Amino acid sequence: MPDLLPQAHAAAEKAYAPYSKYHVGCALETVNGGIYLGCNVENASYGLTVCAERNTIFQAVAAEGAGMKIAQLSVVCLGHEFPPCGACRQVIAEFSLPDGQTPVTYLHNGQPVTKTMAELLPEAFGL
After folding, report:
1. pTM
2. Which pick of 7, 35, 67, 74 has the fewest CB atoms within 10 Å?
3. Active site residue 53
4. Counting beta carbons within 10 angstroms of the beta carbon of residue 94, is it exposed (0 to 12), middle (13 to 18) or buried (19 or more)?
């Protein structure tokens, strides 16, 4: 599997974040081998802001269809370190590998940390 952190970092540099100043980028690889990048796009009406992870996932679905599954995902915030937010975790879980085994990588104390979606969001909502 390719290291997606450099691609997530490059995507973060393109973020539109004039309000929060949190420039977030995401890169994901699908089980079909597709690589998709996205960044957060803010709006003066904060509820209309789209996180980098959801932006990236939506692009992957648009390209590969509703059956798209995430093989791995990485997220970077320039100047800050944190895992995906709760809303993004739920969307990642929707397109995760069976049993939440999709690895998600982010930075903590300057080092990559990888956890499965099941670890990041135990008991994710499902139908």
Report:
1. 0.96
2. 67
3. yes
4. middle
